[in-house]
Automatic annotation (TrEMBL):
Chain's role: Part of the ABC transporter complex UgpBAEC involved in sn-glycerol-3-phosphate (G3P) import. Probably responsible for the translocation of the substrate across the membrane.
GO biological processes: transmembrane transport
Organism phylogeny: Bacteria, Pseudomonadati, Pseudomonadota, Alphaproteobacteria, Hyphomicrobiales
Presence of the UniProt keyword Kinase in the record: no
Superkingdom of the source species: Bacteria
Oligomeric form and interacting partners: The complex is composed of two ATP-binding proteins (UgpC), two transmembrane proteins (UgpA and UgpE) and a solute-binding protein (UgpB).
Organism field: Aureimonas pseudogalii
Keywords: Cell inner membrane, Cell membrane, Membrane, Sugar transport, Transmembrane, Transmembrane helix, Transport
Record-given protein name: sn-glycerol-3-phosphate transport system permease protein UgpE
First-listed, main subcellular location of the protein, grouped into a coarse class: membrane
C-alpha cells in the first residue's frame, strides 16, 4: 500500500500579492506625509534661533544644537504647565473610569424606571458639541468660583457620554449566567459589580482610560476659557501664550522645543499602551 503523499507545503503563508503591495505602498506614503510636520517640528527644535531668523530652510543644514531644550530645563514655567496638565488628565481619567463603569453597569445589568429613556439622553451627549454649552458652563463654573482651580479644569471632562456607551456595551456582552451564579451565592449587586464584573472589563477600561488621558492632556478649548491665571495654565495654553508674538518670544526654535518637550508624555503613553490603542481603534475593545 502506497504511503500518503507528503508534498503538502509546511507553511500556509503566501507571498504578498500585487494589490497588497499597492495598499502597503499607499500606507507608507500616507504615513510619511503625516510624519512630515512632526519631523519639521523636531528639526526646528534642534536649530539655533539666530539661524532660523534668517530663514527656516536652515533646518536642512548642519550644525544642530540642543540649547533650546537646555533653556527649557532652566525655566520653571514649563514644568508647572506639565504638572497642571498631568493633574488634570489623571483626574479626568479617574473620574471617567469611575462614573462610566458605574453608569455602564447600571444601564446594562440593572432594572430601574426610565432606564432606556435615560440611556437615550446620555447618547444625545455624543451629538451635542462642546461649543453649544460653553456659555452656560462658563456661567455655572463662575457662580461656583471654580475657574482657575484643578476641579474646574477636570469636571467637564469627567462627563463622558462615549465612556458610558462603551462600558454599557461591554457589560452587555458579559453572559447573564455570571450574575445568576453570583446571586445564588447571596452576593449583593455592588459585590457582583466590584468583585466579578469590574475585573472582566479591564480591556475596555484600559482603552477608555488611554483615550481620556490623551484627550485631557491635549485639551485646549476649556482650559483657554477657565484658566486665566498663568500659574493654572496647562501645557497647551502655556505654549500658546508664548506664541502670541514671535518678535517678543525667545525664538522659533525654542517654541518648537517646547512643543516637542510637551509631546513626550503622550508619546510615552502611546508606546506603553500601544497594544490597547490598536485594539480600540480596530474595534476589538467590545466583542
Amino acid at each position: 500500500m502506497a504511503a500518503p503523499s507528503m508534498s503538502a507545503p509546511l507553511s500556509d503563508s503566501s507571498p504578498v500579492t500585487a494589490p497588497n503591495r499597492t495598499l502597503l505602498g499607499i500606507a507608507i506614503v500616507l504615513a510619511i506625509l503625516m510624519m512630515v510636520p512632526l519631523l519639521w517640528l523636531v528639526g526646528l527644535s534642534i536649530k539655533d534661533n539666530g539661524e532660523l531668523m534668517l530663514g527656516t530652510e536652515a533646518v536642512f543644514q548642519a550644525p544642530y544644537t540642543v540649547v533650546n531644550f537646555a533653556n527649557i530645563l532652566r525655566s520653571s514655567a514649563v514644568f508647572g504647565w506639565l504638572l497642571n496638565s498631568f493633574v488634570v488628565a489623571v483626574g479626568q481619567t479617574i473620574g471617567v473610569l469611575t462614573l462610566s463603569s458605574l453608569a455602564g453597569y447600571a444601564f446594562a445589568r440593572l432594572e430601574f424606571p426610565f432606564r432606556r429613556a435615560l440611556f437615550v439622553i446620555v447618547l444625545f451627549g455624543l451629538a451635542v458639541p462642546e461649543q453649544a454649552v460653553i456659555i452656560a458652563r462658563h456661567q455655572m463654573f463662575n457662580w461656583m468660583s471654580l475657574h482657575n482651580t484643578y476641579l474646574g479644569l477636570m469636571l467637564p471632562g469627567m462627563s463622558s457620554a462615549f465612556g458610558v456607551f462603551l462600558m454599557t456595551q461591554f457589560f452587555r456582552a458579559i453572559p447573564k449566567e455570571i450574575d445568576e451564579a453570583a446571586l445564588l451565592d447571596n452576593a449583593s449587586p455592588f459585590k457582583i459589580f466590584w468583585k466579578i464584573m469590574l475585573p472582566l472589563t479591564l480591556p475596555a477600561q484600559a482603552t477608555l482610560g488611554i483615550f481620556t488621558f490623551l484627550q485631557g492632556w491635549n485639551d485646549y478649548w476649556w482650559p483657554l476659557i477657565s484658566a486665566t491665571k498663568p500659574e493654572m495654565y496647562t501645557v497647551t495654553i502655556g505654549i500658546a501664550s508664548t506664541q502670541v508674538n514671535f518678535a517678543q518670544s525667545e525664538g522659533l526654535g525654542f517654541l518648537a522645543a517646547q512643543a516637542v518637550f510637551a509631546s513626550l508624555p503622550v508619546l510615552i503613553v502611546y508606546l506603553v499602551f500601544q497594544r490597547n490603542i490598536v485594539t480600540a481603534v480596530s474595534g476589538g475593545a467590545v466583542k
